TrEMBL record:
CDD domains xrefs: cupin_YML079wp (cd06121), PAS (cd00130)
Species, as recorded: Pseudoduganella rivuli
Family matches, as PROSITE patterns: PAS
Transmembrane regions: none
InterPro entries (UniProt xref): Cupin_DUF985 (IPR009327), PAS (IPR000014), PAS-like_dom_sf (IPR035965), PAS_4 (IPR013656), RmlC-like_jellyroll (IPR014710), RmlC_Cupin_sf (IPR011051), YML079W-like (IPR039935)
Annotated protein name in UniProt: PAS domain-containing protein
Record-annotated PAS domain positions: 30-56
């Protein structure tokens, strides 16, 4: 099939086209994660030749794990956000974010799954998004930029007592977190709605005033238990950490609108009480109270 000649000018084989498709990285592996084929783009990205790769076993444990999961499920996966380590051109290595489609390679005639096809593209880096959206690093960890706020407001007397002044009806912002940073534990006067935009998922840990511990992974893949959006209830202590390395970009919306005086951090006494109330999550609480990098 790869040798089939297409009616291009000049004539090209299917393999020629797949080698030259702009910005697309392709490979095929058998059930044992041995590379059966890859395109030229894939080889160049990894700093190798096609001959270096074909016939060798993929040693990238995380990628192999997802391959095995897809083959075991019998269902292809679309828009999987992963990271891959590649040469940086200066003798070192760098981590880049990719969006992957994993399909199933089946035996002709029987339909038996005999391998996996992988197609991915590079996505913007955390630094790309920080520059594009003019994000600024914040003391709670991560990067923040306001986006919009209502042109109408609500007076203090119409709001619950926990608010210390008038508020806009709503406000929205961008928030980016990159590993190993964490979004540190804090509390807000209003519910905060979270929306996934790009990158890897964030795990939100929420400790509610009525004694519940809530965990939500906000990301792109509901089939892996991720939610495209979530809510951190007002009055809760909550924080977050990136799953699978790399970074995640999210939108956050608050109503009534956010003001700088709204976030509160737990005191030492409150942290001690929190650990006493949630002893099984003491390590989580410790992780979410370290300073952002």
């Amino acid at each position: 099939m790869l040798e089939s000649i297409l009616k291009t000018v000049p004539p090209m084989s299917v393999e020629d086209v797949m080698d030259k498709c702009d910005g697309i990285y392709l490979c095929v592996k058998d059930k044992n994660s041995t590379f059966l084929w890859c395109n030229e783009n894939f080889a160049r990205l990894t700093g190798q030749t096609k001959d270096d790769i074909i016939g060798k076993v993929d040693q990238r444990a995380e990628h192999v794990k997802y391959d095995q999961q897809v083959m075991a499920s019998g269902k292809p996966v679309l828009n999987l956000h992963e990271s891959i380590t590649v040469p940086d051109g200066n003798g070192g290595m760098r981590e880049v974010q990719i969006v992957t489609q994993k399909g199933l390679l089946r035996q002709p005639g029987t339909g038996e799954i005999i391998g996996i096809t992988v197609c991915f593209a590079l996505q913007d880096s955390a630094d790309d998004w920080i520059a594009k959206l003019n994000l600024k690093q914040i003391d709670l960890g991560g990067y923040f930029a306001p986006v919009a706020r209502a042109d109408e407001g609500t007076l203090k007397f119409a709001l619950p007592d926990r608010f210390n002044g008038d508020r806009r009806l709503y406000s929205t912002n961008y928030y980016l977190l990159k590993d190993p940073q964490v979004l540190q534990l804090h509390s807000l006067n209003q519910d905060e709605q979270w929306f996934y935009h790009a990158g890897n998922p964030i795990r939100l840990h929420c400790f509610t005033p009525d004694g519940r511990y809530l965990v939500t992974d906000v990301g792109a893949d509901p089939s892996r238990g991720q939610a495209l959006q979530a809510v951190a209830p007002h009055g809760s202590w909550f924080g977050g950490e990136i799953l699978e390395g790399g970074y995640g970009l999210f939108g956050c919306s608050l109503a009534p609108g956010w003001q700088p005086a709204d976030p509160a951090r737990p005191t030492a006494q409150q942290l001690a009480q929190l650990k006493e109330s949630f002893p099984g999550q003491a390590d989580v609480i410790d992780r979410l109270t370290k300073r952002g990098l």
